[in-house]
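Sequence in, structure out. Go.
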Amino acid sequence: MKNLIRIICFFLTLCTILIVHFACTQGNPSAKIGSRFTPRHILKNYTVVWNDDFDGAILDSTKWNYRAEGTVRYYATVDRSTISLDGKGHLLILVTKDENGNYFVGQVSTQGIFETRFGYFECRSRMNRSIGPHVSFWLQSPDIAKVGNPEIFGTEIDVFEYHRKAPESIYHNLHWDGYGSDHKTTGIQIPWPGIGEGFHTFGLEWNEKEYIFYVDGKETWRTKTAVSHREQYLILSTELTGFGGDPSL
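Output:
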């Protein structure tokens, strides 16, 4: 059996969002969604090796750590105060603003705790509603800064990114060869009417030859570009970079 990675419920906000191999329906985070949203061949050929359903009141430190704390990323500082569980199976990752006008975003990752290569990765999420932030579920390589061979050094794999400047679209993106002058990227914007309402499921099937992306169980993109053979870790995040628009408007 192949590896299936599941995360049950993740919200990002200024509104809400969800991630990785996880399953959650609004108001019923323990609901079984695999038969509806997970491709049949995944259910047949893969077995769950890691999951989180975000039960309880605090983040499970055996599965997640707070990432990039204190880092200023464009218009916001990464801070764990933006991250919480609501006790109903939802992970909340907010974008906040203090009385001085400073913005804060949040990131959690499995770096150093759970890193893997190949498998199926899925999350269920509800999108943010405000202009400014973009939210995402992604896989990252510890060697992403190295240049020359993404098979060895890895690739940033954005299973999904979303923002309200394009409220009826979702993005899948790849980045490799670092983030400097050698940086390379490719991706696709997928029209998806209704994506800004309710919960949706995002999946990535990653094998030795290609990446296959899914939204609500339907294949949306397939590519053999920059396929990583490096073990990578999972990230759930909010960002305020300008990609999602000006938050002051």
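Check: The longest strand covers residues 233-244. Residues 66 and 227 are 27 Å apart (CA to CA).
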